[in-house]
User: What shape does this take?
Amino acid sequence: MAVRMSGGDAITEALLLHGVDTVFGIPGVQTYALYDAFYRAGGRLKVIGPRHEQTTAYMAFGYAKSTGKVGVYSVVPGPGVLNTAAALCTAYGASAPVLCITGQVPSHFIGSGKGHLHELPNQLSTMRTLTKWAARIEHPAEAPPLVAEAFRQVTSGRPGPVVLEMPWDVFGMKAPVEIAAPSHYHSIQPDPDQITEAAKLLKEARNPMLMVGSGAVNAAPEVLQLAERLQAPVVSFRGGRGIVSDEHYLGFTCAAGFRRWHETDVLVGIGSRLELQWFRWPDQPAGLKIVNIDIAPSQAARIKPTVSIVGDAKESVGELFAAVERVLTPRRSRKDEFIELKEKTRQDIQKIRPHVQYLQAIREVLPRDGFFVEEICQAGFASHFGFPIYEPRKFVTAGHQGTLGFGYPTALGVKVGNPDKAVVSIAGDGGFQFGLQELATAVQYGINVVVIVFNNNAYGNVRRDQEQLFEGRVLGAELRNPDFVALAESFGMCGYRAGTPESLRSALAQALASSAPALIEVPIDYQTECSPWEFLMPPARSQG
Assistant: This one.
């Protein structure tokens, strides 16, 4: 039954019908009618307004990655939506279900080039280059079916960001609207013949390895079941952290996994781009066979595996386990061997001082089910192998996009989506200042994230590279910073300074116990910190 409503109301009702409970956004003149519809939705919809448009998208990204639900944000068109481009790239690269709702110039100005407020030449085409799908809603009656299609696009196949735009005048235009019910999506069924071929390869494998990415986060039980049958290490780099707990003898970080790389004869990639194997780890083993499991058919063309299984990771791995179980008798446990290997790795990484020691202090205080949000800094790089993770989704990362400054805004979205869980964000002093104004957002909305700022007064990685690669000529990498503790206090939150792992442990425990937003500054002596890169891009085969 059709009901007369505005375009803004039609979008709002469609969002609510799809289970949306939170929108991150900053209103502007083109979207006033949409925000009025949000307001009139009452307690059914929470709207959180940060201090920068980029943050709206990063918060939606953090919400999506940590909950598995669609993260929704809304900004004005033109410069507003362009301000969110880095976060859209992050969501695309990290396969996050993020929905952007933006405005447009009035309908009769679109494509006219008359210079209307926030007009962007062919905004829709621009958004299509950054996202999985984008569309324009040109009448209130189009809103429900296009919102439904946006949800189909954002969640089916490989998840990714999508954009809906609506012209300024259509947000307030009233017309009869019929709200469309959410669609039900069916996953791609894996090919039984490819499952059989993969099982044959694994039957003959002496040293198989599983590599998991974020596409496997919903398949953790099935992955572990297969790994235990094969006695194969499960290696994760960033997005796959915690799919198999680092406490399990089969749960390997990238640093531990490299120790097994040269003996690997069959590699099973599950929801992963296989970045380690194709980009970071040298000397591919001779005769290596690859089984690739991914919901995106394009992965087969890119990776060119021996066997390609296109389908949902949970279903595909479950079927592969059943096939392996039929042809492979249980193997001798390699528990003692792998525990020893992982312990050697743990000892090796201790030389990445002081970051591994600081990360260990954080791990001792952060609850097991707490969230850790990394950042593009030395401590963040070290966390890829130096911070144990026990459950899927608990390690939140920008993935291969490496978007400097994403961490703290993203962590705010993680906390909004998981209000009862502890959330710790780490950052370097450079990256943190991309979004430090969001300390105000944390205080205003009571978003109790603890951010730890490692301060070496530089874009540390840039400075090191310039010194080593360009005969010490450093330009644009050294920073003059504020007093971060005083800065935090000026925003109305508690600030701490910790100069040792022990004092960080104490400060973090106090900050988490306070159940309030907090900042901890950790001064770092650049002259004594060690680079983590030998464990991220090892130059040669690891010994030992």
About this structure: The longest strand covers residues 98-104.
